[in-house]
Amino acid sequence: MAVMGTGLCVLAAPEIIAGAVLVVGVLVVGVAIKEALDAYALSGSRPEEEEVTLLAKPASRESSSNRKPQPEPAGQDWFSPTPPDSPEKERHPRCEPVPVPHLGGDAAHDRCADQFPPNRFPGKDVLVKGKRFDALQVGVRVLWEIKTDQFDTYSDFLQGQVVRQQVATMREERSIATECGYGFVVGVSTEAHKEALVEEEATLNIVVTGCKR
Predict the structure, then answer these.
(1) Domain-by-domain residue ranges, the chain?
(2) pLDDT given at position 206
(3) Rounded distance between C-alpha atoms, residue 11 and residue 1, angstroms
(4) Distance (Å, rounded) from C-alpha 139 to C-alpha 177?
(5) Measured over all CA atoms, what is the biggest interatomic distance in the chain, rounded to whole angstroms?
(6) Which range (47-51, 142-146, 202-206) has the least confidence?
(7) What are phi and psi of 68, to 5 degrees?
(8) How far is CA 189 from CA 57, 94, 145, in A?
């Protein structure tokens, strides 16, 4: 471009003659040239900066979306674990022995139940967890089932029937006694009766009382 007139200058295009200055007289227009160049540099770099910013933002969003939120502690985590059960468990109230009158009708049986263990509650059966036992032995936690059958006089068939029925009942009684912390003993009048019961259920604790009818 041409220059005309005193004190005038023309700036060539910055991409062609960067920083060229025409001075007419004593007027210096370097400041104007610098501002023009700065303005051009800013306008030329802005799109590039915006592009970098736009590319960076999606990456940041993706990183944030992929980040798993930290779970907040549940209310139960705020408390210490439940302490283990104490060594001595509290017995169920129904396990406590409750004296009840003998059923009656068999004086020889009731007399044997009172005298042989001996019974802590003479004249009484003992109710434990809804089950009647013939006696609770004095001084120890042992429940007794007393049998005074004339077992030796029964036929073989009847002996088999009686033993199977009695063993089924004794297993139930022993289970209840064990659950409540008691020992369990069966008293029978004769050795033959004991042997027949042991043959059917060897784990029963059976003693011969010798009680007569």
Answers:
(1) 10-65, 94-208
(2) 98
(3) 8
(4) 16
(5) 155
(6) 47-51
(7) -80, 130
(8) 97, 31, 12
